[in-house]
Amino acid sequence: MTTILLIEDHAPLRENLREMLSLAGYQVHAADNGLEGLRMAAQQLPALILCDIMMPGMDGHEVLARLRADAALKAVPFIFLTAKGTPPDIREGMNLGADDYLPKPVSRNDLLKAVRTRLERAKQQKQSFAPNFDDPKPLEKLGISPREAEVLLWVAQGKGNHEIAHILGLSIATVKKHTIHIFEKVGVESRTAASLRALEALA
Fold first, then answer.
1. Does pLDDT of 96 surpass 80?
2. 187 phi-psi bin (left φ>0, alpha ψ -120 to 50, beta other)
3. Is the CB of residue 7 less than 8 Å from the CB of residue 42?
4. Which CATH number fits domain 137-202: 3.40.50.970, 1.10.472.10, 3.40.50.720, 1.10.10.10?
5. E strands present in the chain
6. If you average pLDDT over residues 159-164, what whole number do you get?
């Protein structure tokens, strides 16, 4: 059974999320603070970690920074659960190495979709042909600009224009413009085709 570590200080939400994940077939370990979460992560080596940002004592950003500095845990997929959904907050989390973020309140469908996506991506990255999403620079060899490479990196990870705009601190209109330019330069007509080209370049 796939193990998920949930770090959330708000008890009602923690139990609600635990129930949703458990009913979906995951084994869930829950911690009510960052320090306890780090201790449980070291003991359990979870397949994925869901973590709140705003917690007393050690916040989610510090939890993530410590995990990414730990050789045994740095590759564990990490998703932020947060009421802080402003672009600077999202960018800070992504810069620290978060794989995704889910704004509160989160629906069951959005939660399970994000979890499945990140677990599948982690599985793929263990294979020899797995793409590396750590750096957009390899995408520039497709003939696109550095900023367009950043946009394409998130397109290839299944993000929509609204989400990409938040992550990169751009307007939705700017992201749409970059996407159109990417399609033209790469010679494709859809996000799916662009994603495939990106995955080939990142592998």
1. no
2. left
3. no
4. 1.10.10.10
5. 3-7, 27-31, 48-52, 78-82, 100-103
6. 92
Total residues found in the chain within this entry? 203
Report the Cα–Cα distance between both ends of the chain, in Å, rounded. 29
Interatomic CA distance for residues 185 and 149, integer angstroms: 11
**pTM for this entry:** 0.64
Neighbours of 71 (CB within 10 A): 6
Residue type, 201: A
Q: Which amino acid is at 23?
A: L
Give me the residue spans of the domains in the chain. Answer: 3-125, 137-202
Pair of tokens at residue 117 = 């996506």
Order of all β-strands in the sheet with 78-82? 27-31, 3-7, 48-52, 78-82, 100-103
Confidence of residue 63 (pLDDT cuts 50, 70, 90): very high
Superfamily for the 3-125 domain = Response regulator (3.40.50.2300)
